[in-house]
Write a structure and sequence with these properties.
The protein is mainly α. The chain has a single domain, classed as Helix Hairpins. Helix 1 runs antiparallel to helix 2.
Length: about 150
């Protein structure tokens, strides 16, 4: 009975840990989605700016403005590269959290399997005790019947 209580406690703790891991996984997934959305925004802005610059350059632009535009585009490309790093880190966080989730699910499943085996053994022991009591009762009844004859 003590082993059964221990396993039940371990299952309860494993569920709490698994739920915490699920919350963390969901936070990482939201962070990943936000990072990807920001990358889309940066890329779209870069494309739009480049297209506007192409149109403006056809009209004629001073070398000073052209230099500033090139510097701005270089900074924008740096921001995109940094955002890609953020996305890569976010992907790694999601992958690590998913692995932790799978490990916690496996542990929980094994504990639940152990609990079922313990319950089965306990049920088997109780069935044997009940059968033994029934056999003893039948034997005493039979003995009393023969004693009266």
């Amino acid at each position: 009975m003590s082993a059964l209580k221990s396993v039940a406690l371990a299952i309860q703790l494993a569920k709490v840990k698994r739920d915490a891991i699920v919350l963390q996984l969901n936070r990482f997934k939201r962070s990943q989605a936000n990072a990807r959305d920001q990358m889309v925004q940066l890329s779209s802005y870069s494309d739009e700016t480049y297209e506007k610059w192409i149109l403006a350059s056809n009209v004629g632009v001073s070398p000073e403005i052209m230099r500033h535009q090139n510097q701005f585009m270089a900074r924008l490309q740096e921001a995109i590269a940094l955002q890609q790093t953020v996305i890569n880190n976010s992907d790694a966080d999601v992958l690590r959290a998913h692995k932790n989730f799978m490990a916690s699910e496996l542990k929980l499943a094994s504990l639940e399997h152990m609990q079922k085996k313990l319950l089965s053994r306990l049920d088997s022991v109780n069935t044997r005790k009940a059968q033994k009591q029934t056999d003893e009762f039948a034997a005493t009844k039979k003995a009393t019947v023969f004693d009266t004859i």
